[in-house]
Amino acid sequence: MKEKLQYFPITTYAIVMGLSGLTIVFGKFYHMQWLPRIFYDLFLFLTLGLFLFISVMYGLKAMNHFEEVVKDFNHRIRINFFSAISISFLLLSVAFMTYWPFLSMAFWWVGLILHTILMLYTISFWIRHNFEIHFMNPAWFIPVVGNIIIPVAGVDYLPKAFSFFYFSVGFFFWIILFAIFLNRAIFHHQLPQKFIPTLFILIAPPAVGFIAYIRIAQSWDTFAVFMLFMAYFFVALLIFLYRSFAKLTFFLSWWAFTFPLMAVTLASIVAFQISHQPFYRGVSFILLVVDIFTVVFVTGHTIGKIREGEICVNED
């Protein structure tokens, strides 16, 4: 047990991100009167319980094996996953907005402060170290493009100008990092198997960006449609890349499938709320089925790997 705790991975927070996304989807379906409330309530507290469990476990790791946490924090790839902690707070804030606004605000403030610190530290870490191009993968999007999530609940807690700041930073780095990633993907060696599922992260920036922009600007305009259709484009692209996923060995990075799919589902629901076009409602239901299948699929594999003792192991 002590050895398992020593190697408890920071990437487990990706599970919280995925389940938080599904919780928010169930919440939106409930408020649209498309599903009963039970699914929303069940996943809301399941996700909160899992978040608390993972946080306690990683806290115990920090107390008993602090050198391993420092090692993770100075790792060229794993450092990006620390921002999954702050994003988990921000997503739980969105999930609790209509259920318990006070707790939502508390989660949002913690997530905001923590994410700002982690984002600035990670960018400074990138600048201070020399990186070869093969270190680049979509997990780099998490610390900086994660800023786009802040306005989703933030417009209710601070003036819109504040939300525009984080939206602008996230959008800017989405463009920059995507150009770097495209260069790495086309002109250099293929991604290692472990990181191929993180390609789904490419869906999240335009999908969450669309939701955040609607929340800030309250405008169904050309830019909003641009963001939404870019999210749909990446979904279509990943469908054409299905052969890259066919024979992968399971890693926790498979949870990268989940949150981006939830994000584009939520974007479709918001698009229907604004435009009332049946197309977006149809896409929302199709994506919900995909979301549920994906979560069931990766949950089954995760439980299987836990039983086999292959999760909390030395990854170096």
UniProtKB/TrEMBL annotation:
Membrane topology reported for the UniProt record: Multi-pass membrane protein
Compartments in which it is found: Membrane
Main subcellular localisation: membrane
Pfam family membership, one: SLAC1
Spans traversing the lipid bilayer: 7-26, 38-60, 81-100, 106-127, 139-158, 164-183, 195-216, 222-242, 254-274, 280-298
Keywords, alphabetical: Membrane, Transmembrane, Transmembrane helix
InterPro entries: SLAC1/Mae1/Ssu1/TehA, Tellurite_res_ion_channel, Voltage-dep_anion_channel_sf
Molecular function in Gene Ontology: monoatomic cation efflux transmembrane transporter activity
Coiled-coil portions: none
One GO cellular component term: plasma membrane
Transmembrane helix recorded as keyword: yes
Protein name per the record: Transporter
